[in-house]
Sequence to fold (840 residues):
Amino acid sequence: MSKSNFTRRGLLKTGTVVTGAGLALPTIFTSRASAYTNEPTGDTVTFGFNVPQSGPYADEGADELRAFELAVEHLNGEGDGGMMSTFSSKALDGTGILGKKVAYVTGDTQTKSDVARASAQSMIQKDGAVMISGGSSSGVAVAVQGLCQEAGVIFMAALTHSNDTTGKDKKANGFRHFFNAYMSGQALAPVLGKAYGTDRQAYHLTADYTWGWTQQASIAAATEALGWKTVNNVLTPLAETDFSSYIAPVLNSGADVLVLNHYGANMVNSLTQAVQFGLRDKMVNGKQFEIVVPLYSELMAKGAGANIKGVYGSMNWNWKLEDAGTKAFVQSFGTKYGFPPSNAAQTCYAQTMLYADAVARAGSFEPCAVVAALEGFDFDGLGNGPTSYRAADHQCFKDVLVMKGKDEPTDEFDTLDIVEITPRAQVEYEPDNPMFAGGDLGQCNNGA
Amino acid sequence: MFGLERKDTTLFLVVIAMTMLAPFLLNPFPQGSAMAQFNAGYPDLMQRFVIFGIFAIGFNILFGLTGYLSFGHAAFLGVGSYAAVWMFKLLSYNIVPALILSVIVASLFALVIGYVSLRRSGIYFSILTLAFAQMSFALAYSVFTPLTNGETGLQVYTSDPQYLLGNGPNVTHLFGLEMRSTTTLHLGNWSFDFGVGYYFCAIIMLISFYVAIRIFRSPFGMMLRAIKSNQTRMNYTGLNKRPYTLAAFVISGMYAGLAGGLLACMDPLAGAERMQWTASGEVVIMTILGGAGTLIGPILGAGFIKYFENIFSKINDGVLHSWFSWLPDGIENFVVKVLAPFFGEGWSLSMGLMFMLVVIFLPGGLVEGGRRIGAMFGRGKADPAPAPKPAE
Fold:
């Protein structure tokens, strides 16, 4: 069947050409000779904002993107400057970073680790991003953080609440400003104790994946220290939309508190159904039945509507805070978009500012220099009060908000009330806390 | 050459040339120009092109030849990835054992699933495979977390045993040749990236492609086509179709496993979403879009979809505004508003439209489109060399 044949002469000719080409190669090929990955050489520096634009967390992603755009505007000296005026570090002056204007590229993570990594790869390899930020799920954040560590760029994690991000999956090139499940537990437990007493039987419904588990473990540990008993913990599949079969057994279990370790649409569904089942009107063990949602977000509160009235939860930040940073941020976000920012938006804005400031203080975009500038950095004025980036695990420590569903909401953004601002000392933990143990920060990586 | 017919040889040579020159072909626009947005010649995406090409070629062996529409092929992709990452965790970052294990595991998996699913045909077969794949996804996502690391995805930690690591590199490599090392060629304003990983994947893809051609042209392939055209008749002739379909199923499972293993070799992380039904649906779309039953179709389809997913999805409102900034303000905003749903996060919408157009007007996929264009220029009737006939 073979129609064409190699000839000796043909082979020799090709051989000569190939050898010639091989000899010529070294003169025109250059390996990446810069000191670190994507060293910005022009008059701009590129950030990569990798957020979910489709899928279950698309709303969060859209709000994150708004905050990123706002932050870039402020860095480049457009708009009113937002929190740059209240930020305790004054290294930024609104002329870009180190004289370079900030440009950005966006990508869609689809809340899938694989897609998020592909998107981050293209930002690094194609667009030359020196910093990647974003993520609306801990799985995605951990995956992208790992990639950034390998590639030698900085990852500023946005919405990720799992203990693992700065626990067993922590990386030297990754930083998290958002709070975590352990902090939620520590902040919530005393408030719950005060409101519901120390003799309670808790029933947990938990989204069946890493975030759900770490949150359940954190809340159970914190409430058990209070004297509560954990009656049962039932894992629910992530894709579940009908929770009625999970809620019915709660009534017969003798429990008098239901803890919903769910997020996003899951939480909206499970809470709504629990309320429809009349759980909150029941009296069990002579006490009023209560529901707790450990991690709140404005978008979830909006989705759950009237069902969240009186339900306790925790948050990283809320637009109703009274400090100067929050006011400046809400002001400029509201002017641009017409509604108040979510706590996801605030963490994205703060992370972008923190990165830019670290670069300005370090005088270089080199990842290791930025890491050194961020480690142990104490700051204020970004909406959370005095905050510091711990060097041991790259986790921010700051006050945590305990929230409660508002009884009389005035409009669709006024759904939650701040019950307590839990001081930072109460939520702090040692880096070797068992819930965070097992990871290794490793060495910062400058890449090629 | 290569024991192939003339037409197939030409096709194979074209594919070789295309894959080897891909860094040039995919980076036609100078860096920094407005059109650079459309460049796709960076290592990660090129790797994805060829890896999903392998996945689609394998799927086509089953779907294109036997007509059995499997909706669960992503399960094999995922299993292959997990197997490969486990080899990294246990042995070392050398990709050879990883690839071998991923193919073996995927084939065993395919054998079991195929044995059960192939008792039915048509829609029942599709649903059975879909059910198995979704089951594998659910298991990987939560139940088997110790084995798969659940939602976070399986990755290699410094605390892993890695018995054979020694002083070897800490990134995936082929006997010391690091997969992520890249050489860049600068020519004027253009820059072209040559990644080791890409060329490794490309060579594997060429081998898989060659094997696929041989299968297509073999008596075995003929038998598979017979199953597609008329099963009842085959049964009456006294031929048992099940060994053939099962063999085709396992072979295509092995291709998927190989693709999954390669994905892990290029980026040592395996997420459960790789097994989700959307991933299974994606390979179906790739194959149909490119042209089911044709040799080159699935590769084209895979490239097409991955291009959309990675390049179109990054065209956000800001980019659109910069394109139309020459228009008066009001009109500019209007145009951007109209176009925005089709770009950026709306890439899947444009993709869907494209898919519908292809299915309605070009039932033979992009390959048929190519052939029609060829025919328009007058040489279509004679012998459309790069476009072999679809099966049937």
In short: The longest helix of chain B spans residues 242-266.
